């Protein structure tokens, strides 16, 4: 891929944005790009700044500093940009006295990519009653309605912020299945903010992890998984193996130890581990996120690269 291709594929560009609410700094010097046709995970602890970031991307809030470009324009009060976006918020509210079918009609009017047949199939999948008034829906049904709107919108940039309050495991799996199947046929950019990282890890192609208002990880998932490993075995052998590496976490279990390390392991590194009687295993995306955010001071020897 040439540089020009990369530039053409960039649909969101965020540069050094900050957001302050009074004396609270919700975002601090955040920069990243989003590419067309990718599924992103926006991860981080409670209060990290994920919702604030999504509100700025969708023009619901203005950044206090820095620049945001979405489809080459500022999203703030910009109808041309906004019609290409669909933002399904955490605990999304719909007009209480409206029937579900009227909510869908309103969505269809606002969203140019709307697929009515697909919306109908999703309504059946999630067993949503279209004649019921919004105020009579259960918590999980209201979340499912948001998911139907987000998926059927086929918006070039669709953002889901913790869309599943009250949704049971079957409905969540249905969401992931329908999302993946529809995305394969209609690629677009999807941003999913979630705390259920293990559940979505094989959906995500790229993650941005926010911690304390700063972007601490911005990387393709394959690359991220490829440069983390857990090494386990006799304590002395583990300690010797990790001595010159970045250790994100270390735990002692009697005479044995396990360490989560960061940095690519070469073929010879792996052979060395085997020779020392150590076992190497992959680290899950959830563990990587936790290790990069729990005030987690990595032990990084001098010269070691993250
Ligand atoms: N309108 C507001 N006024 C004051 N502070 C706010 C406002 N909105 C957000 N904040 C603060 O900004 C910080 C980031 O909040 P944000 O909702 O973006 O976090 P989050 O990562 O989405 O959290 P969660 O995972 O719990 O939903 C928090 O400290 C929050 O209290």
From TrEMBL:
Out of the domains of life, which is the source? Bacteria
Query: Which keywords has UniProt assigned to this entry?
Result: ATP-binding, Nucleotide-binding
Q: SMART domains per the record? A: AAA
- Give the protein name, as stated in the record: ABC transporter ATP-binding protein
Q: Which CDD domains match?
A: ABC_DR_subfamily_A
Q: Which InterPro entries match?
A: AAA+_ATPase, ABC_transporter-like_ATP-bd, P-loop_NTPase
Q: Which residues form the ABC transporter domain?
A: 12-237
In terms of PROSITE patterns, this protein maps to:
ABC_TRANSPORTER_2 (PS50893)
A Pfam family annotated for this chain is ABC_tran
For this protein, the record's Gene3D superfamilies field holds: P-loop containing nucleotide triphosphate hydrolases (3.40.50.300)
Alphabetized GO MF terms: ATP binding
